[in-house]
Amino acid sequence: MIVEHRTYTFRPGTVDGWLKKYEAEGLPIQRRHLGRFIGLFVSEIGPLHTTVLIWGYDSLADREARRAAMYADPEWQSFISGVWSLNAIQTQNVMIMNPASFSPGA
Q: Which domain range does residue 36 map to?
């Protein structure tokens, strides 16, 4: 298993609006395509206006195939264009994490 760790930093005052839109529209589409939703976390201490999304995949090939199918979905295209029009996201960082040999996901 690999884990995709996505960090988004938002303009102040925009996280709550994005969270509502994501929960109502984006997450259902992503669950349909991406499968293993591990969680979404919101910063409380440290860099504020930050969220972390974590998804699990069987492999990089599995991730690539699932994300390609999602990008081709008209519902996703509509959702993501609405997200960009919010002008809320300042930065996005994506990491692919491999489990240590003793990790439960290894």
A: 2-97
Residue 74: which CATH number? Answer: 3.30.70.100
The predicted model scores a pTM of: 0.91
Is 22 part of any domain? Answer: yes
Helix axes 27-34, 60-72, angle to 10 degrees: 130
CA gap 31, 24 in Å, rounded:
12
Residue pair 70/34 in contact (Cβ under 8 Å)? The answer is: yes
d(CA 72, CA 75): 9
CB 93 within 8 A of CB 77: no
- Are the C-beta atoms of 97 and 1 separated by less than 8 Å? no
pLDDT 10s digits, 30-46: 999 998 999 999 999 99
pLDDT in tens, 60-90: 999 999 999 999 999 999 999 999 988 899 9
